[in-house]
Fold:
Amino acid sequence: RPPQGPPQGCFTCIAKPPALRQASPVLSPSSAVYLMESKSCKGDSLRPAVPCKHSVEKKTMTNPTTVIEIYPDTTEVNDYYLWSIFNFVYLNFCCLGFIALAYSLKVRDKKLLNDLNGAVEDAKTARLFNITSSALATFCIILIFIFLRYPLTDY
Structure:
């Protein structure tokens, strides 16, 4: 039996189990010598080059198209998340920091749902609560330092 070289053809033809592959015709020694002499680089294979039926099918197939949906850029909507966490942990004046944090989380959810208008409105509300919480808490801290420095007993 002549030695078989690497299988030729496309992956679909090679990947079939040996029982499903078509048997290559057995060559006579004289034709095998002729095939070996006619090939310039690939002299180790004795099987004739048979065109793969799948390579013909690939030429007739159309290229599939890819559809990419482009959504509005939601990364430009600021959610004020870190500022809300800071206000919630350190400057939570009358729970305004908690409300700002809730609106910041709503902005993140609406950005994931691609609701740009709702995200912008909630971002404005979160910024308003953050500004109010920061301003009132800072004002209270300044008042505390003033009253600690100058107690009411001196008046």
Observations:
- The mean pLDDT is 75.
- DSSP finds six helices and no strands in the chain.
